[in-house]
From TrEMBL:
Top-level taxon: Eukaryota
Region (Disordered): 1-27, 541-565
Record's keyword terms, sorted: Metal-binding
Domain annotation Rhodanese: ranges: 305-407, 423-513
Species of provenance: Salpingoeca rosetta (strain ATCC 50818 / BSB-021)
Residue spans of biased composition, Polar residues class: 554-564
Name of this chain's protein: Beta-lactamase domain-containing protein
Amino acid sequence: MANTAVKAKTSASTSLPSATTSNVEEPTKTLKLEDGLTLYTFYLECLAHGSYMVCHEGNCFIVDPRRDIGIYSKYLQDHNLKLKGVLESHLHADFVSGHMELHKRYGATIFIGEDAGAQFPHYPCGDGEMLLLSSKYAIRAMPTPGHTPGCVTWVVVERATDKAIMAFTGDTLFVGGCGRPDLVGALNPDLTPEVLSKMMFKSLREKILSLPDECLVFPAHGPGSPCGKGISADLSSTIGKEKETNPALQIDDEQKFIEFNTTGLDAAPQYFPSAVMANMKGADDLDREVENVTSLSISEFKAAMGDDVVILDTRNAGPFAAGHIKGALNIPLGLGGGVHLEYEDGNFAIWVGTLIAPKAKVLIIAEEGKGKEAIERLGRIGYAQQIIGNLKSGMKTWIEAGEPVDKFDKITVENADTIRQLQAKGYVIVDTRTSGEYSCVVRGHVKGSINLPLAELPQSCSALDRDKKYVVYCLGGFRSAIAVSLLRQKGFDAVDFVAGYDRGILAKGCEMTTAQPDVCDKAKAAVQEIKQTATKTSAPLYSTSSASSAQPTGKSSESSTQPILNHKKKSRLCAIM
């Protein structure tokens, strides 16, 4: 190994900006090994996203950062750490990354796979290139295409032995699953789910399984992420444990793996392509975008309303039902972070990006004091720029001013007869869970209900009879709250249950069935027609060639200050001083 000097601590002259964002929380988990190697995990539950700071001898790398970088700034400052670089596992589709803001604020080089297609200043890493962390540890780039062609797993290794200690697997290997293969096809038709599944099969077997059993695994996502299926609630694992429990690693036949990897996938949120574009170019400063959104008086808010504007009410379901602006879409803000969400807290930004188009104009209604948080969380998926403004002081001022409101009663399931009584009165019971949840042999579904998954409801509701009345439910009440507001927005007579399926229906002994779904065929046909006529990006954003055409900068403009040294195993060591 090349003998390269490394500074142990940040120099006294280094200036570290303080955190600027409003919500700066503690890391979800801190892992410290005996020799001082430290890993901070920052898990953002509302996006099911994990980012990391791996540190040793006063140096650190940040892996797959979220867009609001205040938490990383805090830890760099509090622990006197020198940021040596930002590691991106790929161009993310489900959130906008903070790599460019970290680059601008700290001068940190962004490292990403050479086939990723990045269009921002970066260092494109090839297979086996080594990034120097400290005198004892380096980080090896290991290409693992499959989720996208440019995915990279970053492996922390001991320099003396090349032993793998931990792997940041991005969207290649999740705990309990692997990355879905169907997101790139909308951007490049040549990269079909079958093509990418073949890449994934090879990556898992030739690269991931080459790591030792004791190697720690830290993925970019946890349960609730739209980037995979069957993801475990565990935030980390080991290669050995995944060998034993992860179905993606237990299929040895390529064709069977392709079938496994291309089926059972929920609909991808519509914001994914726009998030990829933002990450490809590098996003602007989030704080500036948040500050540009103004609070609007009632008269200003009313003047901004229109048929082409979405009124997004981010309050919880109860206050929304008690009084809201007619036509508003209710997606509750819930909690912003933490490692566990209650049923009612949901995935706010993901559902906004699923149901609201990336270019749609949006007006925000929030609980008093929550407007900035709502805007910031929308900025995490690249939606802050399309927000016209938020209603000053929320619905309180609107109601006090005597402005018109719409309201409805939520239904409480009193006993096992409640559902039958509703159906006898002509109500249609709508289950907004996924088709997999609906047909689950363990929980089942309400007998006589129809399955209209929330992600497809804007299209599938066109098949419903407007002369009928509807009662909506989901697992815990979050998705049904969104669904009932969407149905009412479109003119349907719809209400939902106070609690969801588990606590409000099953717990009361209501009749359920595990039979195959009573899915509305007309609704399925409506969704399929929308999918077939959806427009696609004309120019491919991903290249199937090994040399991506989307790298105008080649090696990063900072690479002249980063000597590339020969490695004894013909890889290269990039010493970031």
